[in-house]
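Before the break, one more example. Copy the sequence into your notebook; we will annotate it together after we see the structure.
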Amino acid sequence: MYCRDLSINARLKFLSSFLSRIDATRNIKLNIHSQESALLDEEVFNELEKEIGSNTLPFLAVDVMEPDIEEKYNVTLTQQYIYEKRMKDDDQEEYYQEPETSPPVREEFPGFYNFTFSLATQDCKQLIYSQLLRKVFINMEQPLPIHFKWDPPEDGLFLRTAMVFSLDQYASDPVKRCHNHMALNNLSNRDIDPRVIKHVVRCLDHSSMYEENNERLSILTPLHTPQPGSQYVLLNFKFLCKNSCPSGMNRRPTELVFTLEDGKNRVLGRRRLLVRICSCPKRDKKKEEAEIADAQPVVKKRKLCIPVGKKIMPSFDTHVFNVQLNIVGKENYLSVLKYTYDIMAGQAMRTGQYEFFKPYMDDILRKTP
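Here is what the structure looks like once it is written out:
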C-alpha cells in the first residue's frame, strides 16, 4: 500500500514511524569500502525496502502535505527570508553611518548634490553681512532667513544645523546658552520643551527635531522638494543667546555648520557660516573689519631699477630655511613678518633676482592675518 492512499493522519503517523526506524539504524556499524560507504547495512536496507516498499520515499517527499499545509510552510519561509533581509539591511545601514568624531568636522564640500546656501535678506539695522569676513552680525531673536539649494532637488533629505566654536582650541566644547538665558522665568523659554531650552539656535520650521549627542546640540529639519518654479527651500533661524554672555559662549567666535543628510544620517554635503550674535551688528562689523585691515603689514613699494653700468651681483645664498617660531603678541608677530619681507625685498633689488624672491615674499603676505 502506497503512502498517497492513506489519510493525512495516517500518512503523518507512517512518516513518524519511518523516521524512527531510520534513527534506530544510526547505531549500526557502517561497512566502509575503498571508494564509497553505505549509511545502512545491505541486509537492513533490503528488509526496510520489502516492508515499506521501494516507491514510498518519493511519495513521502512530494505528497505528504496537503496544499493548505504546504502553502502555510511557504509563507513561513517567506517571512523568514524577509526577516533575514531586514537584518542584513540594518547591518548595512549601521555600516554607512558617519562615525562620531571629536572635534566635529567643519570642512566644506558641495557633494553630489552641489549643496549650497545663500542669505535671503538685505542688510538692516538688526542684521548685517560682511563680505570681507564672510560673517553675519545679528541681534538676538532676530530671524535669519536662508535659502538652501541642492541639485537634483530630491525629496527625503534632511538638513542638520549645528553651532560650533570657530577656534580649534574650543572646537570640542559644546555651544550652549548661558545660565541667565536658560532660566525658566525667561520669556523665551515659556511653553518650550526643556530639551530645547539649552540650544542657542532654533529653526522656525515646526517639523524640526532637536537632538543632543555627547553634549553636542543640533537641529534636524526635513527638506521637502522646492515649490514649483523655485530652486531652493527657505528656512528661518533665530538665536537665543549672545556671544558676549560670560557663562555661555564667553566671547568665543562661533559659526553654523549645515550638513545635507539622507535618511541613514549619511553626510552628502557640508557648508559653514560665521555668525556673531550681538547688540550692535553694525558697530561690531566695523570693528572686526578694522582689525583685519590693521593686521595687514605696511609694505613700501620700491623701484627695482638698476643703475646703468652697475654690475649685478651674480652670487647670493639661495638656500631656503623653514623656521617655525612661537611669537607672543600680535604686534610682535606682524613685526617679524614685515622685517622678513623687507630683508628679502632689499636683497631682490640689490641682486636683480626679483622673480626668485617673489614667491617667498607672496607667501609672507598670505600668512599675514
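The mean pLDDT is 77. The first helix runs from residue 8 to 24. Try to locate both features in your own notes.
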